[in-house]
Fold this protein.
Amino acid sequence: MSEISIKRTTKRRPVILLILLLLIGVTLMGYAFLSHQYAPVDPNDHQPIEVRIPADSTAREIAELLDKEGLIHSPNAFLSYCRKEGLDSQLKAGHYIFKRSQSLADIAGAIARGAVVTQSITIPEGYTVAQIGDLFVKKGLFTQEEWEEALQADYAFPFLEGASAQVKNPLEGFLFPDTYIVPDDITAQDMIQHMLATFDKVWQDELASAAADTGLTVNEVVTLASLIEREAQVSSEREVISGVIYNRLDRGMLLQIDATVLYCLPSHKEILTYADLEVKDPYNTYKHPGLPPGPIANPGLASLEAAVHPQKHNYLYYVAKGDGSHQFSATYQEHLIAKGRYID
């Protein structure tokens, strides 16, 4: 190598070294900037901040909303991160609660997962549609007006078709009692849709086959189950009471179930009078033979199973003992004796 070439190489080394140092410096500065942009706005601020992302919001609109609430350093940083991670098309609407101590990655990930604010609501077995609505209103899920409006909507489920014109509420019996984890901004109509879908799944998975053997329609099975639900306070008696109802139906006897009369009355009563038993209503099984036009409550799975699996026996009557259980009788004479023992 010539002396001139050595001198040129020697002169270039500082320049190359300087360029490398500048590139490293720029890279470090860029990394530091991004790290700052992705870091929590305030690691010590744990105050919850509500964010409601409207339906059909774009990634840009969500970024600006988060920036307005002081949850991110800049909209561009949020958009850049979402594009890099492939989240920009996965961001979901809903009600969220974030804190300024959360990183941008945490916030973006939660919105992409749809980790909205939820609450757990348990619907007790045997509640009527009206009682379910009251529970939702008390929980603050929606207003009474929203509930009443949702009850009038159309829901495309086969089991709701062909209901008698005498049915007080077509949804009665089919709002399946369960514990539901729902977003706290769910609409009343979506809640009803969810409960009906739950009933449909339970019916198909657990009951449809056995119900076909009874010869009853879905509405009749659920109606029978609702009677069992309101009459049986002791779980082991569900199938026995179911058998009594089947026996009376087979003989063309009036069912004479107090719970159907209570369903007719404008307000709940603890003790029925003889005048109450005379109420003119198709649901009054003291006056009208057969099952009432529709369910009188929303039965749980145990009562639905009892309705399709009645116990085989010759009982036609039962009377409450006062402790939640019943005395069952095969003849009216035995029933009178039982009434004398436990009621008169």
The first helix runs from residue 3 to 38. The mean pLDDT is 90. The first strand starts at residue 49 and ends at 53. Residues 22 and 28 are 10 Å apart (CA to CA).
